[in-house]
Amino acid sequence: MSPLRDHDSYENVTFKDLDMSDESLKDISFYNCQFVRSSFQFANLISCVFENCTFLNCNLALAKLKNTNFIDAEFVDSKLLGINWSSVRVVIVASFVNCLLDSSAFSDMNLAKMKFVSCSMVDAAFTNTKLARVKFDDCDLARCLFSGVDLSFADFSTSRNYYMDANSNKLHKTIFSLPEAVSLLGNLDIEIK
After folding, report:
1. How far lies 141's CA from each of 5, 18, 118, 137, 163, in Å?
2. Are 184 and 167 contacting, i.e. CB atoms less than 8 angstroms apart?
3. What is the DSSP string of 93-139?
4. What is the pLDDT of residues 159-181, one digit of tens each?
5. Is 78:61 a contact under the CB 8 Å cutoff?
6. Residues of the chain with pLDDT > 90: what percent?
7. In this predicted model, what pLDDT tens digit does every residue of 77-92 receive, in sequence order?
8. ∠ at Cα 52 (47, 55), nearest 5°?
9. Is pLDDT of 6 > 60?
């Protein structure tokens, strides 16, 4: 049985080793809470609010997030594989540090000013997403899909393995570094010697 009850509210609580795997949580609000070594793997989070919350060494792999808010949330050393973030109602100023975000989907979202630091984002998809001023610091972006994305002022200078089509994304003052920036020429019909 779940230690959390639907329609409850928690404030200034630290949850350690909380196991909500395969559970459904509905209409629960968390304010200024901390989750340590907790699991929400395969959980259904429906209309929940996580405001000013921190997730440390947590597992949210394949969690289903429906109509859930993350406001000023921080994810550190956490496993967030295969999450469809597009079904989240609001994400405002979240940061991801040393997280596994492989196979995650970020579609039709405004993620401006987000921070991704030392994250693995292999096979992640960004479609019709606003990533203006986003910082990808030391991230692995292998096989990431960027399509219809606003990357104005985004910073990829310390990340690797990215590829994006300059014709299908907005690249305005986007920051890249060599040799990775050469991948931007991949969709052009040119030869480089």
Report:
1. 38, 31, 11, 11, 8
2. no
3. S-EEES-B-TT-EEES-B-TT-EEES-B-TT-EEES-B-TT-EEES-
4. 999 888 888 899 889 888 876 66
5. no
6. 73
7. 999 999 999 888 666 6
8. 85
9. yes
Residue type, 139: C
CB neighbourhood size of 128 (10 A)? 13
Find tokens 């969709």 and name the residue.
187
Burial group, residue 193, by CB count within 10 angstroms (0-12, 13-18, 19+)? exposed
DSSP 79: B
Cα 90 from Cα 83, distance rounded (Å): 15
Fold assignment, 9-185: Pectate Lyase C-like (2.160.20)
Q: In what order do the strands lie in the sheet with 64-66?
A: 24-26, 44-46, 64-66
pLDDT of residue 1: 47
Domain ranges of the chain: 9-185
Q: CA-to-CA distance for 19 and 43, rounded, in angstroms? A: 10
Q: Which is nearest to 6 in space by CA: 45, 64, 61?
A: 45
Q: What are phi and psi of 134, to 5 degrees?
A: -75, 140
CB 71 within 8 A of CB 49: yes
Calculate ∠ Cα 65-46-150, nearest 5°.
Answer: 35
